[in-house]
Amino acid sequence: MARPPLNEDNRRSINFTVRLTPVELRKLESVAELFGKAPGTLMRERFFKGRFPNPKMPKIDSSTYFELKKIGVNLNQLAKKANANIMPTGILSLIAVLQRQQETIIKLLLDDSEPENW
Length: 118
Description:
By secondary structure, this protein is mainly alpha-helical. 59% of the residues lie in helices and 0% in strands.
């Protein structure tokens, strides 16, 4: 079954050529890949809507985000106990482990969020 035809106002039937330098093209392709869009679609959305589309999820997996959530929950529980003046034994070693995990995850997030040649 074929797709129903679009009316004339919604049909994209006009070609418009844009000349870019090789550096500009690589940058456009890099940003388009980051957003999961074709370069032409990205340019059209940016120009006519005045904003960039929402980016795709970064390449790191959802298990990393789940670990980050667990660390946040643990930190909230520790803060609640500390505010109530309840200090469990071994708290300093647990805080050190959580801090190392947090630094690793932040590094992964920052390294993954910046496209190359940006």
